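Lab channel / #folding
Pinned by the channel admin:
"Please post every new chain as: sequence first, then the structure tokens as a reply. Keep commentary short and put observations after the output so the thread stays searchable."

First post following the new format, from NK:
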Amino acid sequence: MAGLDDVFGDLFASVDGVALFSPSGSYYEQVTAVEDLNVIVVGTENSVGAETFVELPLEFEDVTERIRFGLEGALEQDVIEDGDELLCATSAFSDGIDTISRVRADAESHTGIYDLFAKSRAEPEVVKAVLELAIELGQKGQKGKPVGALFVVGDAGKVMNKSRPLSYNPFEKSHVHVGDPIVNVMLKEFSRLDGAFVISDAGKIVSAYRYLEPSAEGVDIPKGLGARHMAGGAITRDTNAIAIVLSESDGLVRAFKGGELILEVDPEAY
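Reply from TO:
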């Protein structure tokens, strides 16, 4: 009768490394005791003092997102290579590691999400909340109709200096933050109108209806994208903000940083 090693042996055979997601100290010591094994720790902090560490900006609840983000970060930091086969050990049903999967690192499937979170001035929770809001708008639209929107996140003072109001700012005297369900409903309603939303590093809604005025000279965006995307790219070149743009025409969500397109997401596939 076949044993478990016979059934699951291929899962562990010839791997290039092991990615441990937020391991305990004892678990980390056990794994690193195996000779000639490349061990990478992925988590919000390096509590075990691992030599090779990839930081997660958030505790991703979804296991697939957690692993995808961790491997993209590992590729970005050159601690693994394209095509490497890795055992990913993480938690799915308890606080400790209880799930192991074998994943092939694929540089071609690079999404840009590591760049968006790990290299942004705004707090990761804020970036996540705005990205999810844009994706939800892309999925549902405004009263069933496609809608476009532009969110500029971080470095709000400089962004305000490089823009002007198109109308009365409904958030001028408020202290509301993105991520609050009631506030998100307000943002969806206001998205029907022109102009950008400006959001602080900490998530405060600074303004709606802003016309962005940075020069578009030297900003290279893919053909077919319009003024909203050009403005988003330009403002991120001239400030330390990121821009998250929902396209009314094709329904995709795109993110810009440093004047460059770094992320493209289809809301229907999210």
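NK: The chain has a mean pLDDT of 89.
TO: also worth noting, The chain has two domains: 4-110, 115-265.
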